[in-house]
Amino acid sequence: MPYWRLSSFYFFYFATLGALIPYWGLYLKDLGFSELQIGELLAVVMATKIIAPNVWGWIADHTGQRMLVIRVASLLAAICFSGVFVSSGYWWLILVMSAFSFFWNASLPQFEATTLNHLGPETQRYSSIRLWGSIGFIVTVAGLGVLFDYVRISYLPLILLLLFVSIWLSSLVVPEQDGRHEYIDHQPLWVLLRRREILSLLVAAFFLQASHGPYYSFYSLYLETWGYSRLLIGELWALGVIAEIFVFIYMHRLLPRFGARKLFLAALLLTGLRWLLIAGFLDNLLILLIAQVLHAASFGIVHAVAIHLIHIYFKGRHQGKGQALYSSLSFGAGGAVGSVLGGWLWTTSGPKSMFISAAAVSLLAWAVAWWGIRNR
Questions:
Q1: How far apart are CA 233 and CA 229, in angstroms?
Q2: For the segment 258-274, what is each residue's pLDDT rounded down to a tens digit?
Q3: Yes or no: is domain 3-372 CATH 3.40.390.30?
């Protein structure tokens, strides 16, 4: 099992996220865009996840050339992103961000399927590989937090382009591993999607990521508006991902001990608490630190459990499509809705209303999960 080659892809992919999510909103603000426009531009990146993973998932499942799909998508993402150096106009950025994210968002779901196929029956080892993505995120989010206290944030596009190229280079060393032959699954996809546990997982994931929309799109801007430095903002982002790493390290013990259902439901309740703490205690650094530690639940536990369940529910020729559906409905549709509504709420009701609403949406996710998800 090519541990380090798999881990390197996760490292660079999430290192890119560590530069894009916390700082792209600040970069757009520096260009003069309003909060509503920022929300719309960031929503484009998430919205392409609704379509792109499903298109590329279908291609990967039917050709069996999953790594080839990942390599082509990663290269085209880097090429398309270079368009940001041409112009900084609103509609041009809409076009560029739509193009690069269509390819960039295609690669991760297929790489998740590739990793699980390499692991075979040892799927509990997934977290020990995925944690390198969290380490990559920390390296860039903390490093750039220091850097941008000394240099202009206008350097961000160049840094991102180098990271996109690194994703493509890391994909070249990962061998193909197709798992379709391991299972015989004659059920049509639409039959699977009618199953209560699958439907509830996907709907709950949608609501959960919608609740994350204000966090991913506006958390840095929210803190900067209150007077926090970019160095401290970067450290707060990094703290959340450090907490996530501990979850990935111990997940192989937590899942057998508590089961997927209990972990998922507990994490969703803690997610709601996290958003309320951010909304109500912005002037209390200790409370903000506690809220960031809760990222271990709101992302770490939820994502690890969801990947575990998707791998169980979608077998054989549906593996790629299952990962794609999870990505498109949660991080795609859910993230896009949350980002747009977050920008609208900031403009109409103030930034705190974003996180109060996010807490309510996470409770919707809990209700759906309680209704449908079985213990596995």
A1: 6
A2: 998 999 999 999 999 99
A3: no
Residue 189: predicted pLDDT? 66
C-alpha to C-alpha distance for 203 and 195, rounded to whole angstroms: 12
According to DSSP, residue 155 is labeled G
Q: DSSP letter string over 203-224? A: HHHHHHHHHHHHHHHHHHHHHH
273: buried, middle or exposed (CB in 10 Å: 19+, 13-18, 0-12)? middle
Contact in structure between 73 and 100 (CB atoms under 8 Å): no
pLDDT digits (tens, 9 = 90+) for 273-315: 999 999 999 999 999 999 999 999 999 999 889 988 888 887 7
Kindly report whether the global pTM for this prediction surpasses the value 0.85.
Answer: no
Tell me the one-letter amino acid at 193. L
* Number of residues assigned to the chain: 376
Any idea what the Cα angle at residue 296 is, between residues 292 and 225, rounded to 5°? 20
Pick from 134, 187, 126: nearest CA to 317: 187
Tokens of 16: 């890119």
Alpha helix (H) residue ranges in the chain: 3-30, 35-63, 66-81, 90-119, 126-147, 156-171, 189-192, 196-225, 230-258, 260-280, 285-293, 295, 302-313, 319-327, 335-349, 351-372
Cβ count near 141 (within 10 Å): 27
Residue predicted with more confidence, 87 or 127: 87
Amino acid at 222: Y
262 Cβ neighbours under 8 A, 6+ residues apart? 375
**Would you kindly state where each structural domain of the chain is located, as residue ranges?**
3-372
DSSP secondary structure code for residue 195 in this structure: S
The two tokens of residue 64 are 């069996």
